[in-house]
Specification:
mainly alpha, 0% strand, elongated
């Protein structure tokens, strides 16, 4: 029976930490955290916009929306009439 030798896995030594490598790693970590915060903000704003759009659509499509449309239309008409009659 032939015995196989297990492959030797090379040991990779991490280079000594210098102030430059620490600074680079810190900057990369800070950038990644900032990117996560930015995307979290984008998601929150997008969710808020979507909620407002849905709420507005529900208002417009319902009876309250009809009353709101009427009030806005009358208000805009009166404002335009007042502005044009100066």
């Amino acid at each position: 029976m032939i015995k196989r030798r297990r492959a030797q896995v090379p040991v990779v030594h991490r280079p000594a930490e210098t102030p430059a490598t620490v600074k680079a790693e810190t900057a990369a970590s800070t950038h990644a955290a900032g990117t996560r915060v930015l995307w979290r903000g984008v998601v929150v704003v997008a969710g808020a916009v979507w909620a407002v759009i849905r709420w507005g659509w529900d208002m417009i499509s319902g009876l309250a929306g009809s009353i709101l449309w009427a009030a806005v239309s009358i208000g805009v008409t009166l404002a335009a009439w007042h502005w044009l009659s100066r």
